[in-house]
């Protein structure tokens, strides 16, 4: 069974444009921008998020926002950061079956069901992230999820490229499909999670 592990810094969720450590004034500006962006999303929806408008509402220069976060996707990464770090800690070092201590197959199923909850928790922001280019969409959280699943799948399906299997398991758990399944097909979150468990079991159970 796997023990907890620490991934390289490059695999952890980046807050785009954030230097470490921050000056006090820079930290205050960052927090103000994030709070304003979160409030705007709550009032208007994530698809209406505009960096220019965020800058005006936060009373900071537009250049400050762009230097800080790079683009809208960078700001969204910052908005999901806190909850994302809690999720990452849970599957890397938390209690089983999501964390270390359970078998690899069981952990794969637990991860996929937990990921459904993670996507639903901040669905509007996840939808926004998926509108970026593939280079953006498949960095940050996705890269970490893929690394985690690849390690687990290498234990249970060593004869198949675990990197491909990791992509195959993550593909149906994107925010746009989950949103469609809930809104148009009437699927409950529990039904989607049950489907994810079935998919995980199909790929990880020993073959005769």
UniProtKB/TrEMBL annotation:
<dbReference type="InterPro" id="IPR050109">
    <property type="entry name" value="HTH-type_TetR-like_transc_reg"/>
</dbReference>
<feature type="DNA-binding region" description="H-T-H motif">
    <location>
        <begin position="50"/>
        <end position="69"/>
    </location>
</feature>
<keyword id="KW-0238">DNA-binding</keyword>
<protein>
    <submittedName>
        <fullName>TetR family transcriptional regulator</fullName>
    </submittedName>
</protein>
<dbReference type="InterPro" id="IPR001647">
    <property type="entry name" value="HTH_TetR"/>
</dbReference>
<dbReference type="Pfam" id="PF00440">
    <property type="entry name" value="TetR_N"/>
</dbReference>
<dbReference type="InterPro" id="IPR009057">
    <property type="entry name" value="Homeodomain-like_sf"/>
</dbReference>
<dbReference type="GO" id="GO:0003700">
    <property type="term" value="F:DNA-binding transcription factor activity"/>
</dbReference>
<feature type="domain" description="HTH tetR-type">
    <location>
        <begin position="27"/>
        <end position="87"/>
    </location>
</feature>
<dbReference type="GO" id="GO:0000976">
    <property type="term" value="F:transcription cis-regulatory region binding"/>
</dbReference>
